[in-house]
Q: What sequence folds into this?
């Protein structure tokens, strides 16, 4: 079996800490939203804020790393082989057809992954981050000259983005099992080494 | 390649990030809060022991070494030294019972306002003036300019033996008299010499001798003022706790020239300028919480400071009123008053707590203690429904606290809403004034005749009674601002941030934990569920096909 070193140390750290933070933010966020009681509102709100700032800190490093290593190129969208990927997930995966995408160190994401991660990067994250910051600085709105904003709308978009993130997480977690073996992708994200198709 | 080492590194780095974020968050908030939280007004060296710090011992004054016959005699003696005192008192609400709201131009004060307890002062001064800082106000002929009519003692007594008796027009009893009436108990004549020789600063007891008994009895009216505050414990009042700060009313209600600060006719609903500093030429109200605590008083939970621009301190820090074990009156239904037993005698029914549930003189009552307040937006403007105003008869708001979420001066305030039924003059379309107490034929408490009592009351207001009355439902709001609880008893976040929480009546704001957009929630959970079902089916098919393969 062929193995290639796909995910570098920082990348793996980024991925798992971000994953933990996002899950934790969803857990506390939906409690703040009033969906259930787990930590209690006060703790949930306080944890949510701390986790959000931690994620901000993580992202400062991640953005720096992505730019300086040139890894940002991994997210350039392409439509090439998207139809092949879709066809693979809809039929080929059941018949053990060959995977249409050849993973390499320079193109580690398949075209569907690129699109999905780009969607997270340019749609979900900006919405959730912007509304989240407005939420945090609710009391400063009038001094920022945005007193016309309504908390109801800020919350509205924050919640929409949270649901999009939840749906992304469901799909993402499931698709980790679609590697050469069901745990191949997970192992790769832990060790950095991917067994290729 | 050592996986554990990598994981260890990853977990460690994450933990450091977490700590950094948490610390940065906390320390920024903390330093902000610390910089802006002023020192709370020091009242630390006060002990319950009553050692006067005054430079004058009034028992050594020959002016006071006299057998005074009446209250005004004592006042004359006071004025020999305190030459300006009566002139100062003459300017105050305590004296005039009248105050014009500069914003609404409404003429307020006890003399003018109708409430839904005993309803109105006019024609009943002999009784009501037991809480007037004067002597002799029995009718409209009272001389408000006479200096010796001022009652110095009622506020400055330290003996606790001075009591103004309803029915004596603001005088104490100078001779032994039966009190309460028909009780068989006798009050000894007031010892004016002893009292005059022991005058001092106002106290919770002196202020409370009237303010704890508003509405005709202990704890009846305000809900947050009753005799439990004379000697309160920590849980009841964190400022006035006898063994703690032991603050008096006057420590917050600072006075200048006998003008006492703080007013429920024009309360200070919000003050965004922070704590008042000694020597400041600021004319702001010194009675507010903010005047000492500032607007960012929460040090450990700085997020709470983000609430002070919308929520009055009282809302969280007075989780319930009437916490001193005494019941406060919640409703008063005058419409059932006047029923007599078969012998034509007054009926009084008492509840298990010894409170009147029914009294022929007054009608039906209900009482409660540990009451959860109602909450309203309040910007400091109170609009009263005054006598003569034509009113809607379905439900009359005797006063209305104004404000809304859009109003930067408004805060969410706790209020006691007192509900009642009281007489309404159908012909004049106004709340009615009636003659309650007195020894004459028209007084309702003597004759139980509404028409006579209304004719006399309306006449005293210079209006002719139409002869046609009915009872209307009324509501009156009282700001809750006393009985501040220790911080550990303050409301928790979740008491408001949930469905049907404390602020359920405040609907013009979005509150996380309470509000949401139902369609988004429905769509969001449906799509998430579909995604989950989709991947499960996909996975199932993969398992099935791989086994076959």
A:
């Amino acid at each position: 079996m062929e193995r290639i070193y796909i995910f570098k140390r920082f990348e793996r750290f980024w991925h798992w800490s971000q994953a933990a933070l996002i899950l934790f933010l969803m857990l506390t966020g939906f409690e703040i939203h009033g969906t259930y009681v787990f930590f209690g509102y006060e703790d949930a709100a306080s944890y949510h804020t701390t986790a959000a700032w931690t994620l901000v800190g993580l992202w400062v490093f991640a953005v720096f790393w992505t730019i300086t290593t040139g890894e940002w190129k991994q997210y350039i969208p392409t439509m090439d082989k998207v139809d092949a990927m879709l066809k693979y997930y809809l039929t080929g995966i059941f018949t053990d057809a060959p995977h249409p995408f050849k993973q390499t160190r320079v193109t580690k994401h398949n075209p569907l992954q690129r699109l999905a991660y780009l969607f997270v990067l340019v749609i979900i994250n900006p919405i959730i981050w912007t509304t989240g910051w407005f939420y945090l600085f609710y009391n400063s709105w009038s001094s920022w000259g945005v007193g016309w904003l309504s908390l109801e709308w800020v919350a509205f978009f924050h919640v929409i983005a949270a649901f999009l993130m939840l749906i992304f997480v469901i799909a993402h977690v499931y698709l980790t099992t679609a590697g050469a073996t069901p745990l191949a992708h997970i192992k790769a994200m832990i060790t950095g080494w991917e067994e290729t198709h | 390649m050592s996986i554990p080492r990598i994981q260890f590194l990853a977990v460690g780095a994450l933990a450091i990030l977490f700590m950094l974020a948490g610390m940065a968050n906390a320390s920024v908030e903390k330093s902000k809060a610390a910089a802006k939280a002023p020192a709370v007004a020091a009242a630390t060296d006060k002990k319950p022991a009553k050692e006067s710090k005054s430079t004058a011992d009034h028992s050594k004054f020959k002016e006071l070494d006299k057998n005074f016959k009446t209250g005004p005699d004592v006042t004359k003696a006071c004025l020999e030294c305190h030459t300006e005192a009566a002139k100062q008192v003459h300017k105050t609400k305590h004296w005039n019972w009248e105050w014009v709201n500069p914003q609404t131009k409404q003429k307020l004060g006890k003399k003018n306002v109708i409430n839904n307890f005993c309803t109105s002062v006019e024609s009943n001064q002999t009784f009501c003036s037991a809480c007037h800082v004067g002597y002799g106000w029995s009718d409209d002929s009272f001389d408000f300019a006479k200096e010796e009519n001022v009652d110095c003692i009622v506020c400055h007594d330290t003996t606790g033996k001075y009591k103004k008796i309803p029915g004596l027009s603001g005088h104490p009893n100078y001779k032994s008299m039966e009190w309460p009436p028909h009780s068989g108990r006798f009050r000894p004549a007031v010892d004016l010499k002893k009292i005059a020789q022991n005058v001092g600063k106002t106290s919770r007891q002196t202020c409370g001798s009237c303010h704890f008994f508003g509405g005709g009895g202990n704890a009846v009216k305000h809900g947050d003022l009753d005799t439990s505050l004379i000697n309160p414990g920590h849980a009841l009042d964190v400022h006035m706790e006898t063994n703690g700060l032991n603050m008096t009313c006057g420590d917050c209600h600072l006075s200048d020239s006998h003008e006492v600060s703080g007013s429920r006719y024009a309360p200070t609903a919000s003050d965004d300028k922070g704590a008042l500093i000694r020597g400041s030429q600021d004319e702001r109200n010194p009675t507010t919480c903010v005047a000492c605590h500032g607007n960012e008083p929460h040090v450990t939970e700085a997020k709470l400071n983000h609430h002070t621009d919308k929520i009055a301190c009282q809302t969280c820090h007075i989780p319930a009123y009437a916490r001193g074990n005494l019941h406060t009156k919640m409703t008063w239904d005058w419409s059932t008053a006047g029923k007599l037993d078969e012998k034509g005698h007054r009926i009084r029914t008492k509840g298990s707590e010894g409170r009147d549930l029914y009294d022929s003189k007054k009608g039906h009552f209900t009482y409660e203690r540990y009451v959860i307040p109602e909450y309203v937006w309040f910007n400091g403007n109170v609009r009263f429904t005054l006598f003569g105003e034509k009113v809607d008869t379905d439900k009359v708001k005797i006063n209305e606290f104004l404000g809304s979420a859009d109003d930067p001066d408004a805060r969410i305030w706790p209020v006691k809403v007192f509900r009642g039924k009281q007489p309404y003059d159908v012909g004049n379309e106004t709340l009615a004034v009636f003659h309650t107490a007195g020894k004459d034929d028209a007084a309702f408490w003597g004759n139980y005749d509404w028409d006579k009592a209304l004719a006399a009351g309306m006449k005293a207001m210079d209006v002719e009674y139409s002869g046609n009355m009915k009872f209307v439902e009324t509501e009156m709001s009282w700001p809750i601002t006393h009985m501040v609880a220790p911080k550990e008893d303050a409301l928790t976040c979740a008491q408001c941030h949930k469905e049907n929480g404390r602020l359920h009546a405040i609907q013009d704001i979005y509150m996380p934990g309470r509000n949401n957009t139902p369609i988004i929630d429905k769509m969001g959970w449906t799509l998430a569920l579909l995604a989950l079902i989709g991947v499960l089916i996909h996975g199932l098919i993969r398992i099935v096909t791989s086994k076959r393969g």
In short: The two ends of chain A are 9 Å apart (CA to CA). Chain A has one domain: 3-195. Chain A touches chain B through 48 residues (CB under 8 Å).
